[in-house]
Amino acid sequence: MFDKNGGLLGAIACASVGLLIGGLIGHFGTTSVTEEDRERITTYQKLIEDKWASETDVTQMILDLISTTNLRNNLKELSRKPHLAGTARDDELAMLIHQRFMEAGFDTAELVPYEVLLSYPNHTNPNLITIMDSSQKVVFTSKFKEEALHEDDEDPEFVHAFNGYSAAGDVTTQPGVGVIYVNYGRVEDFEKLEELGIDVAGHVVMARYGKIFRGNKLLHAEQRNASGVILFSDPKDVALNGTDPKDVYPNSFWLPGSGMQRGGTYTIKGDPLTPGWPSTKHAYRLDESEVPLPKIPCQPIGYDDARVIMEKMGGKVPPADWVGGMKGIKYNLGPEMLNEYKDYTLRLQTNNFLRSVNSYNVIGTIKGSTEPDRYVLIGNHRDAWGYGAVDPSSGTAQLLETGRVFGQLLKKGWRPRRTLVFCSWGAEEYGLIGSTEWVEEHLEKLQERAVLYLNTDSCAAGSILTPSSSPLIWDPLVKLTKMVPGVREGKTLYDEWEAYHLARNRSSPELKTLGSGSDHAPFAFYGGIPSLNVVFRMDSNKHGIYTHPTYHTGFETFYLVDTFVDPGFKIMQGCGRLAALFLKYFADSALIPYSLQQMSTVIEESLNKVKDKGKGATLLEIYDKFPLLEESAHNFTAATAIFAQKLDSVKDTLDPVMLRAINDQMMKLEQVFIMPTGLPGRPTIRHAIFAPSQFDNYAAAGFPGISDLLYRIDDLQGEELSKRHKEIRRHISDLTILLQKASGLLEDFNII
């Protein structure tokens, strides 16, 4: 953008603007204005026009048009029947969304199929956990489906409880031993058991849901040679008012005892058979035996059934914070059973199977009037583990309504500067499959043309706005939340967001980087596309939890949302309003409104966190050039400050060529941090600065590769330690070079 002597190439832009306008004025002063002259002026104005600033009436129209009635009707239809990925109802909804895009007047709408490997339970031979007494008489059999508690709960096609991609298996414990309670199944929980002298190898482990991704729980157990996993939702996490019928669904939003959280367990994202490549019909596919799917059986149960198992367990007393909310249960660690059950055995049987199916994405576009080759994308997945009234249908209802509103604008003659892309993803619940395959297929286009990806998975999981994004989006997030009316008592979404964090002793709303867990992940962590995830969650100040209690269970119904979560549909309306404003802001602002200095600030803060607790000294001892990484981070901070300062001085006088060039420069910034071969040991996670934790796919981490490589390094010796040190030196060098490249990207265009 700027010349190396500090003079502004932007000044040349200003001069060219002045010369052009001056010439035209002089020309008009001596001759009549021709149609050709008018066309030139119109074209020029169109190229530099900031439609966001000039179309405040359209912005207000967007806020007014998002209808709670339409949102309610959308949700009722979307959640009327279960729609597991790859099933007939999932396909029906794909067709419905395609039809709605066409009715809205989109320029294109297409169904995009991918042939993918999915996992299903056997409905004729359900997964079961049984307990047998000394005579091998079955004294307990777990439920494989929730009890119907409301008139709309029962559906013959409702999926049996299972964990996607977990192995088929049949495991029986030895009499009187064999089950170990592992709390949340985190790394630190297994390490605590090791401290207590408890080895999970050869045993079935029981873990309560929460804190980390369920697939990581299973992986941690498998890595320690457990024979199987039982997952359950504990009342302490999902029934805080008590477990009496009056305190749980259908009388409140809390989870009743038969509720079972389904969910995927594969920790690698995308179609398992086509890693790194789109799963089109002609794609080469791995054999199933070549895919690192889970090797041991895993089954979810409700807390009513968990009680029956855990009340029989003996062994050591758990740490105090491991005790859950089942009254009368001691949460003993096992593996021994109590004396009165010393001859009992537990059997875990899973009969899951794999099947290749077609799963559809629905992609609709509204062509940009000025920059049709620049994309602002919004996406939400369509598939659910059941009725999915919250996850994902509250987001899908919003996607449809937002599409309808932009269709209304089109009919009034409006058109965005840049192209809007609406995406309904398939098979997200199994591992972000639809979005991952699409990103893999269109990676080059997206990296060249994508301005923003906005994800809206669960618009109404609660009333608290809990966004996360690339730091490049943080300033726009603050700006736009101040424009959207509140969904509770606040004047604006920002006021409510701020009040929530003031109650948590923070001076301002928490701005967070992205973890994984939804369809923004392939855009952000594989493609380096600036991304934002908008979600409304439970009020953890009030309830102590973020995730809605009926998550992925048979009780996540339209009745639940309509009665308890979002009566009146104001939360969903707020989600739609914010999403729609983001689309217009990034599609219509002449200068893309990224916050570059937020990026540099967060990078320095993340590096300081990596250095905490003596890790900086360890890294310096391993690699004496570690200070160069710190220096490169400081240099990047300086480069972004200089860039922002100079840009601010010329942003209102840029000609079309300079405007386009600067936008392209900023669009590519985050892609600099993409490592072609991925993070150490994680080829599909390629963002070197911000990415999910290795030990929890849901969690965000800064400089995750360093944290991964330092994990348990003190346990290594000899050749293993030497190899790890070499990996650390290489990775620090890579990071240093990437930050230097990022600084270089912000230099003048004429400097290579």
Overview of this protein structure:
With 752 residues, the protein is of the alpha/beta class. The protein has 3 domains: 52-114 and 360-476 and 518-547 and 554-588, Zn peptidases (Aminopeptidase); 122-351, Glucose Oxidase, domain 1, CATH 3.50.30; 596-745, Transcription Elongation Factor S-II, Chain A. It is built from 25 helices and 21 strands. Strands 1-12-14-13-15-18-17 form a 7-stranded mixed beta sheet, sandwiched between helices. Helix 8 (214-223) links the parallel strand 7 (204-208) and strand 8. Helix 20 runs antiparallel to helix 22 (626-650). The longest helix has 28 residues, at 718-745. Mean pLDDT is 93; it is low at 4-29.
Tell me the β content. Answer: 5-15%
Structural class: alpha/beta
**What global shape is seen?**
globular
Overall pLDDT:
93
Which fold name is given in CATH as the topology of the largest domain? Aminopeptidase
Largest sheet: 7 strands, mixed
Helical residues, percent: 25-40%
Using DSSP, what is the number of strands?
21
Number of helices: 25
CATH class of the largest domain: Alpha Beta
CATH architecture assignment of the largest domain: 3-Layer(aba) Sandwich
Overview in brief:
This protein is α/β, with parallel strands linked by helices.
